[in-house]
């Protein structure tokens, strides 16, 4: 099994990406890690002898965060992101990971790797933290701003297969993000999607509201990329603010510091539960290969988690399962 990692994408590349790749190589001896990027910059981050299952593949260009996605993919053919995508396309890698430009990664998936036949639009599908530690798969969270009812239905099918085949969840519950739980809530697209999901063989539990996300009201949350991304950013901002305010409150006096010392183990556990870095990356479901987006601010832990997640998806024959299901319909 081979997993290609875009070493040059992300806020802390190549330092954190390389550190995560080295750690992942050590933890997964049955996986060959292909670090794609500027060879001299990657080697400068290797402070010790690299693991035998880690290989550097030189790429001379970088897709920057401000680059226009499609233009960057078409013009920067020797960029670390495009080269990693080409490795997947040519079956020289089983998966690719990148913390770089989300739009460019989407374009790489579509233009370089290609879509699964029958899929109208791929979806970005991260696993969101939940208080019970299980997490909730949500799609789409940013790949496409708009979606038709039929595309929302396809998201549900792909998400259900992911949770069944990769995570071993029987009959995962499908929920539709909406402004209320009543049947006829929402705009025309969500109303039509509701009927498609209700009539399907999926385990559809109805509309769900964003206020209940941490309680895992469903196992697969279906939404368009615009609504989903707003929900995700709101969650991330709220979680960050809460922990900042807790830290401020617990350092105000000797008494609060003593209280913090008592609460510290619980608070660390809660922070870990809600930390996106602990959950790895977001797969681009619908692409004819395992393509994963990790957060732009990913640290080495996130890279390690993403490698583990990609490895599980490959072993679970995720792409093959989605392909078979979509072509059966």
From TrEMBL:
<dbReference type="InterPro" id="IPR003664">
    <property type="entry name" value="FA_synthesis"/>
</dbReference>
<comment type="function">
    <text>Catalyzes the reversible formation of acyl-phosphate (acyl-PO(4)) from acyl-[acyl-carrier-protein] (acyl-ACP). This enzyme utilizes acyl-ACP as fatty acyl donor, but not acyl-CoA.</text>
</comment>
<keyword id="KW-0012">Acyltransferase</keyword>
<dbReference type="GO" id="GO:0043811">
    <property type="term" value="F:phosphate:acyl-[acyl carrier protein] acyltransferase activity"/>
</dbReference>
<comment type="pathway">
    <text>Lipid metabolism; phospholipid metabolism.</text>
</comment>
<keyword id="KW-0808">Transferase</keyword>
<comment type="similarity">
    <text>Belongs to the PlsX family.</text>
</comment>
<keyword id="KW-0963">Cytoplasm</keyword>
<protein>
    <recommendedName>
        <fullName>Phosphate acyltransferase</fullName>
        <ecNumber>2.3.1.274</ecNumber>
    </recommendedName>
</protein>
<keyword id="KW-0594">Phospholipid biosynthesis</keyword>
<keyword id="KW-0444">Lipid biosynthesis</keyword>
<comment type="subunit">
    <text>Homodimer. Probably interacts with PlsY.</text>
</comment>
<dbReference type="InterPro" id="IPR012281">
    <property type="entry name" value="Phospholipid_synth_PlsX-like"/>
</dbReference>
<keyword id="KW-0443">Lipid metabolism</keyword>
<keyword id="KW-1208">Phospholipid metabolism</keyword>
<dbReference type="Pfam" id="PF02504">
    <property type="entry name" value="FA_synthesis"/>
</dbReference>
């Amino acid at each position: 099994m081979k997993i290609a990692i875009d070493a040059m994408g992300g806020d802390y590349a190549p330092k954190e990406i390389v550190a995560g790749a080295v750690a992942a190589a050590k933890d997964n001896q049955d996986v060959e890690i292909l670090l794609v990027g500027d060879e001299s910059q990657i080697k400068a981050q290797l402070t010790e002898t690299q693991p035998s299952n880690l290989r550097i593949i030189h790429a001379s260009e970088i897709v920057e965060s401000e680059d226009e996605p499609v233009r960057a993919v078409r013009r920067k053919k020797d960029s670390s992101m495009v080269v990693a995508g080409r490795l997947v396309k040519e079956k020289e890698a089983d998966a690719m990971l990148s913390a770089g430009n989300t739009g460019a990664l989407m374009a790489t998936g579509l233009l370089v790797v290609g879509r699964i036949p029958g899929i109208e639009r791929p979806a970005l599908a991260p696993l969101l933290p939940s208080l019970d530690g299980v997490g909730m798969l949500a799609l789409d969270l940013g790949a496409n701003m708009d979606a038709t009812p039929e595309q929302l239905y396809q998201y549900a099918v792909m998400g259900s297969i992911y949770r069944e085949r990769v995570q071993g969840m029987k009959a995962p519950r499908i929920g539709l993000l909406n402004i209320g739980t009543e049947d006829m809530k929402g705009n025309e697209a969500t109303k039509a999607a509701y009927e498609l999901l209700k009539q399907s063989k999926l385990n559809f539990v109805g509309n769900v509201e964003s206020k209940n996300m941490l309680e895992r009201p469903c196992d697969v949350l279906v939404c368009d990329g615009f609504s989903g991304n707003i929900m995700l950013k709101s969650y991330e901002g709220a979680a960050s603010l809460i922990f900042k305010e807790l830290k401020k409150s617990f350092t105000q006096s000797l008494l609060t510091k003593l209280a913090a010392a008592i609460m510290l183990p619980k608070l660390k556990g809660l922070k870990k539960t809600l930390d996106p870095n602990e959950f790895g990356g977001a797969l681009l479901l619908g692409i004819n290969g395992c393509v994963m987006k990790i957060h732009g601010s990913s640290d080495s832990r996130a890279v390690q988690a993403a490698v583990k997640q990609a490895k599980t998806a490959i072993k679970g024959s995720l792409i093959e399962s989605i392909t078979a299901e979509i072509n059966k319909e």
